[in-house]
Amino acid sequence: MADALEQQARSLLSAGAVRARAGEMLRIGLAGGLNHFTIDLDRMDGVAEAVLAVTRKAYPALDVPFHARWRHFVIGGVDRWAGLANALPWPERAARARAEFDLAIVSVLLDAGAGAAWRYRDAATGESIGRSEGLAIASLEMFASGLFSGDASSPFRADATALANLPLASLASAFQVSDANPLLGLDGRTDLLRCLGKQVSKRAEVFGLRDTPRPGGLFDYIAAQANGGAIAAPAILSAVLNQLGPIWPSRLELAGVPLGDCWRHPAITADDATAGLVPLHKLSQWLSYSLIEPLQRAGFEVTDIDGLTGLAEYRNGGLFVDHEVLRLRDAADAERAHAVDSLLVVEWRALTVALLDRLAELVRAKLGRTPETLPLASVLEGGSWAAGRAIAFARRPDGSPPLKVISDGTVF
């Protein structure tokens, strides 16, 4: 019985489970069965047009890359990571891939909402950069300076021991945090990196196959699963969820398996112990998208990229609320702050995932593209995230999302 329960729990650690349960939430919503939202699919065409407009502006030739952390390392047209990495004498492609896994994992884990007030002053340009892009450049500088390395002669790495013992003051200083420049969730971010270090140390058989334990060891673990040089994108997510799952703050568990970004909603039915559970895995999928390019550079073919789902975060979710595809049943909910485990937020995030699949179909139809030539990862990048940010700034001077979520720095 325990084995069956554990299997049920692990079934939630997949992109397939995210898509299936998000789809169920949308069906319930379309039938009028949700407490907090009604859904108007007639407004989806307007959303698709808004997404196309920002996509064409950013990528006139419609050669849209994947939505991944690597995009945020490009400032003013200059790819900072490529500039650093291309100048180094990597002994083999796998060595660069490990470093890129190290960087992507640490940078994504540091990428929860920064708050509207925080800025990072970039030494190279003198610019002050906020939000996700600021966090990215800050994390790249930390990585390049060796903040996460246990070896002073080899800065471009993250080591389990250095992460596990990371001082809060070092992270605060590297993020340029002060009373005048506050960063949301600094303690949560520090704890997350320390937990990452401890987990990587504990699982040397996964993270230390070709080197001392480091997050980048996940590259070797995933590479070993390649079939004829090909790796399916959902297998990347599965590795991320199963190997890094225990680092997240204590949330729901089933049969001793930590379920990560997974929440309760009574409308979701199942004939086993997973009834009422809604997996979303936003940060883990954002990370999985960000691990595709290092694998490709190392010579692997990554297949079934559309097997991953859209990301249940406030830019994509805000896109549908601001365009009134999703409408609050109680308008006063727009003024209140909501806990991340509230039924309203769980509904909003699950509906976002399901609507992103529909949005991708609409955008492809308008462009005459297929899922192969315009995967969901490119629609997100082109795309839905940028359009969500654009309409947020058009509607509200500070660009804040249309709904207020109380986050601990590890969900959004």
Comma- or semicolon-separated keywords:
412 residues, two-stranded antiparallel ribbon, 16 helices
Reconstruct the topology from this structure.
Layout: H1 2-11, H2 15-30, E1 37-39, H3 44-58, E2 74-75, E3 78-79, H4 80-86, H5 93-109, E4 119-121, E5 128-130, H6 131-144, H7 160-164, H8 168-174, H9 186-202, H10 204-207, H11 217-223, E6 230-232, H12 233-244, E7 253-254, E8 257-258, E9 262-264, E10 277-279, H13 282-297, E11 301-303, H14 314-322, E12 326-328, E13 337-339, H15 343-367, H16 376-395, E14 404-406
Parallel strand pairs: 6-11, 13-14
Antiparallel strand pairs: 1-12, 2-3, 4-5, 7-8, 9-10
| Strand composition percent | 5-15%
The helix fraction, in percent, is 40-55%
Give the H and E element order.
HHEHEEHHEEHHHHHHEHEEEEHEHEEHHE
For the record, give the distance between the C-alpha atoms at the N and C termini, rounded to a whole number: 35 Å
Largest sheet: 2 strands, antiparallel
Number of strands: 14
Describe the structure.
There is one protein chain. The chain is mainly alpha-helical and 412 residues long. It has one domain (2-406). It has 16 helices and 14 strands. The chain has a two-stranded antiparallel sheet with strand order 1-12. It has a two-stranded antiparallel ribbon with strand order 2-3. The protein has a two-stranded antiparallel sheet with strand order 4-5. Helix 5 packs antiparallel against helix 13. The longest helix is centred in the C-terminal third of the chain and has 25 residues, at 343-367. The model has no long low-confidence stretch (mean pLDDT 94).
